Amino acid sequence: MSGVGDVTNSGGGSAARRAGKPTLAVVGATGAVGTVMLGILSERADVWGEIRLIASPRSAGRKLTVRGEQVEVVALSEEAFEGVDVAMFDVPDEVSAQWAPIAASKGAVAVDNSGAFRMDPNVPLVVPEVNAHAARVRPRGIISNPNCTTLSMIVAMGALHAEFGLSELIVSSYQAVSGAGKEGVDTLREQLVKVAGTELGTQPGDVRRAVGDTGPFPGPMALNVVPFAGSLKEDGWTSEELKVRNESRKILGLPGLRVTATCVRVPVITTHSLTVHARFENEVTVAAAHEILASAPGVVLCDNPAKGEFPTPADVVGTDPTWVGRVRRSMDDPNALELFVCGDNLRKGAALNTAQIAEVVAAELTGVA
Amino acid sequence: MSGVGDVTNSGGGSAARRAGKPTLAVVGATGAVGTVMLGILSERADVWGEIRLIASPRSAGRKLTVRGEQVEVVALSEEAFEGVDVAMFDVPDEVSAQWAPIAASKGAVAVDNSGAFRMDPNVPLVVPEVNAHAARVRPRGIISNPNCTTLSMIVAMGALHAEFGLSELIVSSYQAVSGAGKEGVDTLREQLVKVAGTELGTQPGDVRRAVGDTGPFPGPMALNVVPFAGSLKEDGWTSEELKVRNESRKILGLPGLRVTATCVRVPVITTHSLTVHARFENEVTVAAAHEILASAPGVVLCDNPAKGEFPTPADVVGTDPTWVGRVRRSMDDPNALELFVCGDNLRKGAALNTAQIAEVVAAELTGVA
């Protein structure tokens, strides 16, 4: 365990209270997910000694608030990882690819929210409610955090899998624009200003002409949905769709699981929704699924459509759990369920799960686990 | 064949040109679909003699334009159907349930776009590109037009079925607000004005509080998606989801087809989109599917994501065909395809298909077919 007092720009605060606790670095502290992360670190049980904020050199010197204290951001460098026990990375793939191994070489456990290491067989891909045990085996000193779309459903799927044995997932997403970062949010907000108060949306191309620049998206996001997220990969699949498939298999420990996803972007700021057709090895009932989901950690069952109760992004945004509603048993298949699932893509879909993984490591390092 | 000159308020226009042609009545001419219908009747090959416009008594006397001529709306009554050969109904279920049989008893073929008769075994449910032959057998003198969500995909599915033999459909919808009529459109437009230019959409319930009244929807439509359309039926299914199942089976003539739908409303004015997992009896390839879809009547293949080509509602709205893109073969199943399909829910999804059915009947009545 590293000391606290020997680092400048520290967020150590009350040294006595934090003595003996591990040091956390947040790399990418000034980004969209980093900002949510600082809020989450301020809300959760305080397991950390120092919290060091790291960002690109151009952000160095800025002061950000975490745990109610001002902490100065330091520039990303090898030295910035001195004495760090756990380093969270919320940065682009190529930055993680370069710097997470450096953090690991300095003795930190890197918890990475990029796509750089997720499918590396020597890097565990962890969702604490589903496979916390996997975090202990990390040959490269790196643990990956899953993609936000996978994370928006996997806690609920893991709970159902534990009971019924999952054999197939067919998923369609309704993904929020914040999955494309601040630029995605700004683009939708600007487009909404252009279409609000108009009669647009009834003639071919009228919305496209009115919004002009589509920003990071391959089509207008206001008054539209766009069936493409990420980049184009083999056989017409997008990177986002392949992530849902490959990551779900790895997290659940089911390398042969049948998984098909079609990812569609919708004009929602934050919170991904998914329709899920989940097939199991054993017969299912709605009552049994309800019981499992109602008691699963990290899941909220919201399923009483007679009273208008089902999850929607507008209600789920800003909350931590995976929300599940519209649970039905497939009429043609007693082994399959249909569900509608919502999860905040910046919280459980990114910052929260990263924080949870870091806490699992902290507990291990301090002998609590 | 009825004459033209014996009806007042007629839209007969040039009597000589229209002599011998069948008389059409449009019931519900002043509604959302009726308005689109008048435009479609003005664009298509002119197979009609008189076009009579019928609506509720409070709309009687209004003048509407069809085929470039002003036609006075007459009030719905038994007499209004005198001399009518084909009567289209774009009215609520209960109005159709009462009046379509009256029109039929007066000798008209009723083409009904409500849900009143769709599952009646004595009423054919017709999509001309798929099952035009079914229109000839109509023991009650009524032909039903399918629900807009079913119609948004069924032409493409019918073409693929003819080649590969369909065995299962798993569908998720991205349904436009105009499916809930003018009130639906007005509600979304009003909500967009309330959220545009704000920072809403990041805190639980902030959009819900800002938009207030949710109109005909069970949740906010701006910056949100709502996994509920229609009314609640047995076992947690909605009426809309059951329609997709039951109507697809009837149109395709496959009473045992496995069909599962989850219907979700999205903030789009007009044009429904669907993700479709389609399983077939025979092995499929993307190349063969492309070939079929590219040559299928009423279908546009738009599938080159490397060039940013895939259908979106903003581009499809106001057009007639079913647009298909993102065609992929399921990685786990050589017999299954994944597709993204868009169709204008007011045109092919309602008015256009009704007009096409009426034209099939007109051709039969005039001996052209």
TrEMBL record, chains A, B:
Substrate binds at Q175, R265. InterPro entries: Asp_semialdehyde_DH, Asp_semialdehyde_DH_beta, NAD(P)-bd_dom_sf, Semialdehyde_DH_NAD-bd, Semialdhyde_DH_dimer_dom. Its EC number is 1.2.1.11. This is Aspartate-semialdehyde dehydrogenase. Belongs to the aspartate-semialdehyde dehydrogenase family. Homodimer. Residues 23-138 form the Semialdehyde dehydrogenase NAD-binding domain. The active site is at C148, H272. The lineage of its organism: Bacteria, Bacillati, Actinomycetota, Actinomycetes, Kitasatosporales. Pathway: Amino-acid biosynthesis; L-threonine biosynthesis; L-threonine from L-aspartate: step 2/5; Amino-acid biosynthesis; L-methionine biosynthesis via de novo pathway; L-homoserine from L-aspartate: step 2/3; Amino-acid biosynthesis; L-lysine biosynthesis via DAP pathway; (S)-tetrahydrodipicolinate from L-aspartate: step 2/4. Pfam families: Semialdhyde_dh, Semialdhyde_dhC. NCBIfam families: asd_B (TIGR01296), PRK14874.1 (NF011456). It catalyses: L-aspartate 4-semialdehyde + phosphate + NADP(+) = 4-phospho-L-aspartate + NADPH + H(+). Coiled coil: none annotated. Phosphate binds at R118. One of its GO terms (biological process) is diaminopimelate biosynthetic process.
